[in-house]
Amino acid sequence: MIFEIQIALRFLREGRTQSALIVGGVTVGVAVVVFISALVSGLQSNTISRTLGAQAHIVAKPVDPEARRQIGDDRSDATSIAVVQTAPRKVRSINNWQQVIAAFEAVPTVVAVSPMLSGAAIAIRGEGRNAVTIFGVDLQRYDRIVDLRNKLVTGSLRLEPGDVLVGTELARDLGADIGDRITISTGTVTATDERFRITGTLDLGNRDLSRRAVYLPLHTAQNLFELPGGVTSLEVRIQDVFAADKVAARIARITPLTVDSWMTTNSQLLSALSAQTASTTIIRVFVSIVVMLGIASVLVVAVVQKTREIGILRAMGASRGQMTRVFLLQGSLVGLVGSMLGSLLATLLVFLFVTFVRGVDGSPLFPITLEPQLLVVSCIGATLCGTLAAIAPARRAARLDPAMAMRA
Questions:
Q1: 3-state DSSP of the chain
Q2: Residue 156 — φ and ψ, nearest 5°?
Q3: CA 342, CA 299: separation in Å to the nearest integer?
Q4: According to the model, what pLDDT value does residue 310 have?
Q5: Distance between alpha carbon 303 and the CA centroid of its chain, in Å?
Q6: Rounded to the nearest 5 degrees, what angle is found at the Cα of 117, between the Cα atoms of 114 and 120?
Q7: Is 236 left (phi over 0), alpha (psi -120 to 50) or beta?
Q8: Cβ neighbourhood burial of 87 (10 Å; 0-12, 13-18, 19+)
Q9: I need a labelling partner for 365 at 20 to 30 A (CA). Which of 70, 147, 188, 226 fits?
Q10: d(C-alpha 60, C-alpha 396), whole Å
């Protein structure tokens, strides 16, 4: 291969302008592919983090009771009319939920499972009243589901009897701060209002959720909703968020509960993410095609320009296979050098984007990380594209007749 490499490098050096232009084209193409891929990946990761940051990947709840059918009697024509009456909603517990948690934890890819008791209530402080949702949680388990520690704004992440964690918007609406007490009322006839001390405020990434979220110890919530020892849902976190539907289906086969994944409850978000991925793939494909056409066109011109040299080399004993490898090496070298320069340019573009593109508050819009795997795959892909683009020019060069080529 030493002979082929020497000839390929010599041909590239002699056509410096053409070589520089095509390497520049590959550089820009690879930079665009890498930058767009990193940008979309960062955007999707940020979107998923904000959407799933305050909710579980999979939620299991008791099955809703069947609607009751009543038969009404229309006296005017003596016709019986079936009327479907929806069963009233109430807080229902999961039977034997400790055993169910153990079964969920045995499912592959499940990272954590946490029991929860949730229900509607009213938070009161002075004249302020806000409708809220109570989340009774085992803090140690639940923190593995939504990572509350990273959402803590003020105070401490502590839930002892009499403590409460609230969203930042709710604390602002009630005019409450760390150490202040608020009253929680479930609004039922038999329930008694209870007062709790705010130990921390949480920014849950969603203003509406931060305005209504109240976290209590699980045992306290059970007493508040008069559901001793009960939980209303089991929250599940898995390794791969995009495998949530498959894992949810597997969980549904081992339990009579209603199992929903975030992909089902956030179908519009999933559609948007799929559209982003599809558009990125289309950009990659068309940029690769443009790069391949550019390399092929330059090498075709190089074959025409080097016809005499090719004829001389063939007359001196160079085989068709050697001439084919010369032009294939040219395509590979152009793709390799262009991809390396493109990776450097993409790194610069990412740095400029993170540095100068800011949000309203002056912070970066979202984090972008250039994964080494993306750079390696891009370099390999560009090199392969360069090699494939050189096939046609290489075959044309190999088919040249030495005598005809020397007379050209």
A1: CHHHHHHHHHHHHHCHHHHHHHHHHHHHHHHHHHHHHHHHHHHHHHHHHHHHCCCCCEEEECCCCCCEEEEEEECCCCEEEEEEECCCCCCCCCCCHHHHHHHHHCCCCEEEEEEEEEEEEEEEECCEEEEEEEEEECHHHHHHHHCHHHHEEEECCCCCCCEEEEEHHHHHHHCCCCCCEEEEECCCCCCCCEEEEEEEEECCCCHHHHHHEEEEEHHHHHHHCCCCCCCCEEEEEECCHHHHHHHHHHHHCCCCCEEEEHHHHCHHHHHHHHHHHHHHHHHHHHHHHHHHHHHHHHHHHHHHHCHHHHHHHHHCCCCHHHHHHHHHHHHHHHHHHHHHHHHHHHHHHHHHHHHHCECCCCCECCCCCCCHHHHHHHHHHHHHHHHHHCHHHHHHHHHCCHHHHHHC
A2: -130, 155
A3: 20
A4: 73
A5: 46
A6: 140
A7: beta
A8: exposed
A9: 147
A10: 64
Q: Which residues of the chain have pLDDT under 50?
A: 73, 78, 80-81, 87
Q: Which amino acid would we find at residue 383?
A: T
| Residue in 334, 338, 323 with CA at minimum distance from that of residue 393 | 323
**Both structure tokens of 193:** 């209002």
What is the phi/psi pair of residue 203, to 5°?
-100, 105
What's the pLDDT at 114?
A: 93
pLDDT, one tens digit per residue, over 41-66 is 888 888 777 777 778 899 999 876 65
Whose CA is closest to 216, among 130, 299, 137, 124? Answer: 137
C-alpha distances in angstroms, 326 versus 136, 278, 308, 380, 392? Answer: 71, 37, 15, 19, 13
Say how far apart CA 248 and CA 244 lie, in whole Å.
Answer: 6
Q: Which two tokens stand for residue 191?
A: 């329930």
Around Cβ 145, how many Cβ atoms within 10 Å?
Answer: 21
How far apart, in whole angstroms, are the C-alpha atoms of residue 81 and residue 93? 34
Q: Report the distance separating Cα 229 and Cα 109, nearest Å.
A: 28
Residue type, 66: E
| Burial label, 35 (beta-carbon count in 10 A; 0-12, 13-18, 19+) | buried
pLDDT of residue 78: 47
Angle between helix 320-356 and helix 307-315 axes, rounded to 10 deg: 140
- Residue from 145, 157, 158 nearest 116 by CA: 145
